[in-house]
Write a structure and sequence with these properties.
This is SusD/RagB family nutrient-binding outer membrane lipoprotein. Pfam families: SusD-like. InterPro entries: SusD-like, TPR-like_helical_dom_sf. Keywords: Lipoprotein. Helix 1 packs antiparallel against helix 2, helix 1 runs antiparallel to helix 5 and helix 2 runs parallel beside helix 5. The chain is globular and about 60 Å long. It starts with 15 loop residues before the first helix and ends in a 31-residue tail after the last helix. The protein has about 240 residues and is mainly alpha-helical. It folds into two domains: about 110 residues, Up-down Bundle (Four Helix Bundle (Hemerythrin (Met), subunit A)), CATH 1.20.120; about 70 residues, no CATH class. Helix content is about 40%, strand content about 0%. It contains eight helices and no strands.
């Protein structure tokens, strides 16, 4: 009944494509858990994601526009060797006075992800993980909480940092509540928690602090404090047992 600018659709809980990316990461970490190769699982995840978006989401967005996609188009994406392009602020580029300047109103950013989609068996495990998680991040859209967890867990994909940090310091330390480079690491407790369970809150925050590994000085009930599984002291392959 509207002009086509909005639409509603069921929200998936877990996508089939995510299963392939989970298996690809597991195979990368523990080679004996899978018979299929990391590359095969990675590419199946991409194929499954694209096909699912076309057949499922496409019908909700514009039923008359997309009903199928040629396999060769998916192959071209999987074999792509291009990397992330630089972001150009469209507003700033309308005003030439901002070009080539350090004006804070200009949001131009250099591309950060330097790996292409095409699989490279000679790459390091870290680079392979970056490829897997980056494509998983794309495939999981619009499951933003899941993607945020993946980004905190692995550091991938590499995201643009905020130009302006307006996180409010309410915890007694100097600086912001969220580190600009690290971004938000957790959701803070709601006011309801403090209003209805005030007696338990100090203990909850003590536990949070005991598990916090932030190296930026963030602590307590702020967005920059790390939760237990978001460990700043370990790399992506510290506990694999390989």
């Amino acid at each position: 009944g509207d002009n086509g600018s909005t639409y509603s659709m069921p929200l998936p809980i877990m996508k089939c494509a995510e299963g392939y990316f989970l298996r690809a990461e597991a195979k990368l970490r523990w080679p004996d858990v899978e018979t299929e190769s990391v590359q095969s699982l990675y590419e199946q995840g991409i194929r499954t994601s694209i096909n699912a978006e076309v057949t499922y989401r496409g019908a909700y967005v514009r039923p008359d526009a997309i009903s199928s996609i040629d396999a060769s188009a998916i192959d071209a994406y999987i074999n792509g060797t291009g990397t992330q392009i630089d972001y150009e602020d469209p507003v700033a580029h309308i005003n030439p006075s901002l070009l080539g300047s350090d004006d804070p109103a200009c949001n131009d950013r250099e591309g950060l992800n330097d790996l292409c989609v095409a699989w490279d068996e000679s790459a390091t495990d870290e680079q392979k993980l970056q490829r897997i998680i980056t494509q998983k991040y794309i495939a999981n859209f619009p499951l933003s909480v899941e993607s945020w967890a993946e980004c905190r867990r692995t550091g991938y994909p590499i995201l643009f940092k905020g130009r302006v940090n307006e996180s409010q310091n309410t915890n007694g330390f100097s600086g912001y509540a969220v580190d600009t480079q690290e971004g938000v690491r957790r959701v803070i407790y709601s006011s309801t928690c403090y209003d209805t369970n005030a007696a338990a809150m100090p203990g909850a925050i003590d536990i949070l602090n005991s598990e916090n590994t932030s190296q930026t000085g963030k602590t307590g009930d702020v967005g920059g404090t790390r939760v237990w599984w978001d460990n700043a002291l370990e790399d992506n392959f510290s506990n694999d047992g390989n």
